[in-house]
Task: structure prediction
Amino acid sequence: MTIGDVPQPIVELGRQLRLRRLPLGIEDYNALWRALAAGFGWSSHEELCELCVALWAKSPEEAELVRAVFRRSVLDDWNVSQARRTSSAKAPTYATESRVPRLPDDSAEHVPQAEPVRGLHTIPPSIGAVDRSLVMIPQYPLTEREIAQAWRRLRRTIRSGPAVELDVAATVERYGRHGVATPPVLVPRRRNTAKLLLLIDRFGSMTPYHGYIDHVVRAIRNAGRIDDVREAYFHDLPGKAADHRILEQIEDPFCLDLDAVLPMIGPMHDGSVYEDPELTVPCPLSVALSQLAKGTATVIISDAGAARRYYDMTRLLDTVALLKALQARAGAVMWINPVQPEGWPRTTADQIRRYIPMYPLTREGLDRAIDGLRGRPAPVERLP
Amino acid sequence: MTPPCGMAAQRLAEVRRRIPDNVLRLAYHAALPVVVDVGLLNLLRVNFFLDPPDVLPFEAEAALLLSPLCREIGQGLYEMPPEIRNVLLIGLQTSYGDKRIRQVALLLEQYSTPAWSTQPELEKAQQLTALSFVDSARATRWLESASADVETATVGREWHVAMRNRLRAQPQADEAPREVVKAKSKLKSKSQEVRLTAVWALAALAQLPGTDITPAGDALLDMVRHRADASAPDVKAAVTLLRTLGRPYADLADAMAPRSRDQMPRNTMREAARQMAAVRLEQKMAADQSAGNLVSALAAIEEAIAIYRKLARSRPDILPDLARSLNDKSNRLVDLGRRNEALAAIEEAVAIYRKVARSRPDVRPNLASSRNDLARLLSSLDRTNEAVRLYQDLLPDQERVLGPDDPDTLATRQNIALWTGKSGQWAKALRLFRALLADQERVLGPDHPDTLATRGNIALSTGESGRPTEALGLLVELLPDRERVLGKDHPDTLVTRRNIAFWAGESGQPAEALRLYQKLLPDHERVFGPDHLNALAIRGNIAFWTSKCGQHGEALRLYRELLPDEVRVLGPDHHNTMATRQNIAILEGDDPETNFLH
Result:
């Protein structure tokens, strides 16, 4: 390849894929160059597409993404008539003129259309075309890989199970001590025993985030390598504080915070959470919390009124009661808010984060929340 | 289609205050299905809003679903009120055309979700709706045959009735452009009810971003002027609508609102008409400008300035309009190469803005923008020290008034960095450019022309700091992006190609530099003509690198061909002409091996 003859179709393809959050790096491009130089991928668009899939996709979803983006990319410049394969690994050249039949503007395939038949009309007729360039895989700000990478840092390792791992130092030490050949010293493998409870707000202003949150939960479960992940769902809050009359004791009518009455708020007792995201299988909060192992890390995922830009003092009071209940039972508690921090001011979220560390659902936010769960101090203005 | 009612116009006006225009364009797409869920909306964004110019982040999805445009109907589904849906569909049609409608319909058909596969009515409604946008006759035909045989169907008679009404109510592909015409003709109706419907139809259509508001605004203005009874509901509605259309309609609405036409002071009416004429001239200038009629554009803006000057004598609120027009005039003069006259106009604009900005915080962004134009003009007049000082003075003000992420603030940073480099401090310039690039990519996106310009400047600073190979690599990466975003013949794209050739030579690849310059020359001559300064410079470079490649005879021939053209275009004393003459002398010498070309 010579300077100035950068193969634009591939550069464009890579750009489109990176926009769709497929983390392509220099190494991935190099792999493609080497494969092309060796003569692969020149006979047709399909072969080139499958070559990219083989080199770049690491899951069926990513493969589908590469194929879809490939179909929508402009590949007219890819001159497949140059597919004279030579045995030498000579770098290919990229023609700028196309001698390939151009794809029609609308690359949807046309299939013969059936005329509607009387008596079989219970299903409306199909449009009769499929547009394969449409990406049918949802895409969120964080990929499964990024979420898993973040959560793999939540580790509490102990050795447990059968002794199968060689302890080199102990074996050498025993050799030296006995002076004769002794069997090797084996120890159990290290296991991550970190436990995690996800308390997830559903419906209402959280509905727009359902897809993203489900994706996050799935990624933590599938690839986060955490010993025990539990989810509990609720709408707005799992329950109410015992006594709302506490609010009447705040003297300043314009006061937005609960600092004055904080010690008087008791932990939430009567709430309930749900085992399923559709909120159909209830479970008392006290039971759910009593089942938690000691030191279970807890994460609350909720917009805390920020999505609709609400401020609600009663909700703040109930939230503090929930935090007190969690503090009594669980280990570190962090709050993850799917709304970006620009949307927090002047909402309930802005007050809640004075009492509990709150981070946005971004890579940096997750990292900081996990730092907090691992024990790094995460200062808040007031402890509830 | 069903005429939009007042609710649609009011809700759209409210939505436009709350969400950006590109989120509204996502709403155009979301209006096609019967209902949307988060999964479908996500796919709409992923397929149609990841590439410039329409780039939307994930947060836009929640912003749309939680806006007044959408109503949650349970099970994670959202629907739009039919009146709003129809207006948005017109937006989809006029902004994106039939091909996009077809793509959205296909996406809807290919999307399947448990949420509607468990509800046969909904599933069928979605499928039929998708079909109706691609082939409405076929959809209607199926519906008629299915309704006739309702007993065997899995859905009830109500469903068929509802779907028939629905399909009838949604706008047809060719209907959108006719809506404004239809509504305007109804404004003359004798029936107050018909007029009111027309007012609201125009109101709703004028809320679509990018729509020409002039026909709607003029028709409404006309109606308000010709109706004696200012308290009639349609007149009130028209005045409310005029207020949402911005200047000058908002001003005129304020002038007319409390009184009927007869009670309006005569001079106010006259002033309003004059102001209107000036606005028309500004519009004419913009149209001429984009059509390339630079002289006519200048004449229009000068006429507008004359009107604003007269009005401003008695009305200080007109001063910002006068300053804006002066700024436009300055830009048009720059286009025509009359830079000294342009300087006078922009200096007056800045002076007026400065005076007004003290009491009018809303014009401060305009002041910043004009100061930026002034600095740019000064730097192009080689008054670089004044320009750098102006830019540096301007930056803190822009950061405060416009915010650090405003495109104008970023442009000022770019200028400071560039002139810092040109004063010889390339390492410092490189640092400034790198910091700027990160912010531009975040704010403007990686494909914005300014972001691309910064990448070019980073390459320049890198090369000037003594790392030509690295500069070359950066430019090679930049070129495909520029060609894709700006086109192959854009001046910036050609600049990048020239720079690639330059740094290829500087990094010790004479044959490659020669090849690239030779490839560039015909394109450059085609775009700018053979007598362009840079075309001559490229020819000089070709001769230089030909000589470097050992072909001294050929190089000499090229220099000899170049010299008369340079003398004719640049003059005999231009430094390029002199360099060519010197090189000819060297190559004519007995021993070219010893000369400086080697």
Q: What stands out?
A: Residues 58 and 112 of chain A are 36 Å apart (CA to CA). Chain A touches chain B through 47 residues (CB under 8 Å). The longest strand of chain A covers residues 157-166. The radius of gyration of chain A is 29 Å.
